[in-house]
Give the backbone structure.
Amino acid sequence: MQNRYYDGGGMEEEKPRLLLMGLRRSGRSSIANVVFNKLPPSDTLYLESTRDINKERMHSFMDFQVWDIPAGVSYLDAPDQDIDGIFSSVGALIWVIDAQDEYFTAIQRLNDTILYLCRRYHSPQHPDNPFDGMPHIEVFVHKVDGLSDDFRADVFRDIQQRILDDVADHGFDAAPIHFYSTSIYDATIFEAFSKVIQRLVPQLPALENLLNGLCSKTGVEKAYLFDVCTKIYIASDTTPGDITQYETCSDLIDVVVDISEIYGWERPDPEPGSFEEKMLAQETGNSDAEAMITMERRGAKCLYLREVNKYLALVCIMAVDDPAEKRAMVEYNMRVFARGVNQVFEVRPRLMEDAELKRVQRAKASEAKMGRKK
């Protein structure tokens, strides 16, 4: 596996954007550095407060921008702020609320932002999807690691109820708002970001179908498709899972990445060629592209990791008596799955190009028809 890094320059406006927002000292910058820059959580204590909009681009299976918006930016009421520039091309707005601090001001600021977006995007003429095009509002009730379980649940419910009630009072109860309880000191922040990213992946239904098929054919208990650099999983099978399963698979990602950084090598991008040649190069270009580890915990538990392509890895939890007996069948099905995932991500750009070509052709035909009438 190769190292992937994040680049703050050369922003491209068409890339989907994640906005990190919240009050001062809410934990926005800490979240961004832990998830996207692999900063140890203990080192976030030394981060300075964000004074300017910090822009980074994530190079991954889906390039997107991450903007850390400082609390001092009055983006709604300041005439010198480019509101359209901030909120255009936004896939998700992540609002971070410090659960250990007084949060009524944060809720009011968030509600003002939600109402602004609802009024901007609300389309009553489309009752099936009245907020089409509106960014998803993702509320992170953050720093919950310092609260007792009961108090944590009470704070979460109180914040959720206050926000939803205020939005509903203005007639926008169908707005896309989601809530998460998070901390940078455990896996909850990665779990929350996984859910956020999945809403931005148009191929998610196809990926879930592939994972469900893989689980049914190979006896896999739980399967995750990970972005290797961030440990965010972009898809999983639809069977119920828990946070401990994610943590187990995430730890395996860390082990394999650490080993590959020592013994791996930089794999060149495949030369332009046919689709089949590119897929073959992805599958055979790195002989350490898969690893298998057996762990004994309350019976035989086998963790299987296979690199799918440059950015993605499949991690599975299997309950088998003897993994060696089924290794050939498992590896065959994993290869088929990897090929299917690569085809899913290859086909969508083609479909989008075809749709754009047809749109241009229709526009030209319409212009020609209008010219003949004149």
Remarks:
- DSSP finds nine helices and twelve strands in the chain.
- Residues 6-198 form a domain with the Rossmann fold fold (CATH 3.40.50.300).
- The mean pLDDT is 79.
- The two ends are 61 Å apart (CA to CA).
